[in-house]
Amino acid sequence: MNNEKTANKNQSRSPTLEDVARAAGLSPMTVSRALNNPKVVRPATIARVMEAVNVTGYIPNMLAGGLATKRTKLIAVVVPQINNNMFVDTVQAIGDELALRGYHMLLCIVGYTPESETDIVATLLSRRPDGIVLTGIHHSSDLKRIILNANIPVVEIWDMTPTPLDMLIGFSHDKIGHAIGHYFLEQGFTRFGLICASDRRAQVRKKGAIDVLRTAPSSFIREITVPAPANMQVGRSGLGQLMQNGEEYDAIICTSDTLAQGAIMEAEARGMQVPRDLKVIGFADLNFAAYNRPAITTICIDKVKMGQQAANMLADKIEGYPIAESVVDMGFSLVIRESA
């Protein structure tokens, strides 16, 4: 009976490094070296160890291995949200590119508060990632201290500054706002409504647009700030608030395509036609923007290229390759469609 209990206990536990060593006829230290630092072990020995791993079903402890090699092959990717398509393409591209380089992505959703980002990143770093991708450039002083103390490669995305924490690939939200403002002023428009999400990057785009629009003495500008993350319902209610006093507008500037889509729906519900009665512009060129009716004029960011380049910058830094540029400005393009 005791023998049966021992056998059942052995069958229920996970295989260990010692099990692999016994199956391979090698010492546990040799097996550990073969798994964690194969460059110092003969190919024939590695083959014996891998055969034993397959026979026993042993799963290497990547964290334990990381203590010896200082590598976990894990990359933490931090974004505020993925409940619309704003960051999805970039995240997917990061994950795909990291996989090609032999890394695994740990995705974390932190919302839009600095406190949440700080708490979650601190927890992430206890997992000993080889590197980390952060969204944006505005972080709490506590987070900056934690990141610098961790001494791991960092790539910030979706923003622009000459002084990143480590590396950066993104674009200028301020310049995007300027481009939108100039586009509408050049068409002779004077009455503008802005529906802006409350997150910091959206607020920068809004300010950039308003700074340009105010250069025209006859401009009328009214703005509404809506909660982040944005959605179509918020876009509809935002336009409703702008128009509640009977105000008329030439153009509505939205800080996302999702808000723009909601604004278009609200305008049509009020018996207006876009663009005949009202022009609408969005941001990010999300996957529905070109197929909406009317198709949405927007700002296009190469979200896939950003993700691919961020992943490769990080992997190159981890592996000791030189980084040609630590700050990469991808720029943006104004895509003119039916809505404006």
Architecture overview:
Helix 2 packs across helix 3, helix 3 crosses helix 4 and helix 6 runs parallel beside helix 13 (303-318). Strands 2-1-3-4-5-11 form a 6-stranded parallel beta sheet, with helices on both faces. It is of the alpha/beta class and 340 residues long. The protein has helices at 2-12, 17-24, 28-36, 43-56, 62-69, 88-100, 114-125, 141-150, 173-186, 200-213, 232-242, 257-269, 303-318; strands at residues 74-79, 104-109, 131-135, 154-157, 167-170, 191-197, 220-226, 251-254, 279-281, 298-300, 327-329, 333-335. It contains 13 helices and 12 strands.
Features:
single chain; 340 residues; alpha/beta; four-stranded parallel sheet
Radius of gyration: 26 Å
The percentage helix is 40-55%
From the N-terminal CA to the C-terminal CA, the straight-line distance is: 81 Å
Number of helices: 13
Which percent band covers the strand fraction? 15-25%
Order of helices and strands: HHHHHEHEHEHEEHEHEHEHEEHEE
**Overall outline:** elongated
What structural class do helix, strand and pairing data support? alpha/beta
* pLDDT averaged residue by residue: 91
Question: Uncertain runs with pLDDT below 50, 5 residues or more?
Answer: 1-11
In total, the number of strands is: 12
Strand order of the largest sheet: 2-1-3-4-5-11
- Major beta sheet, specifics? 6 strands, parallel
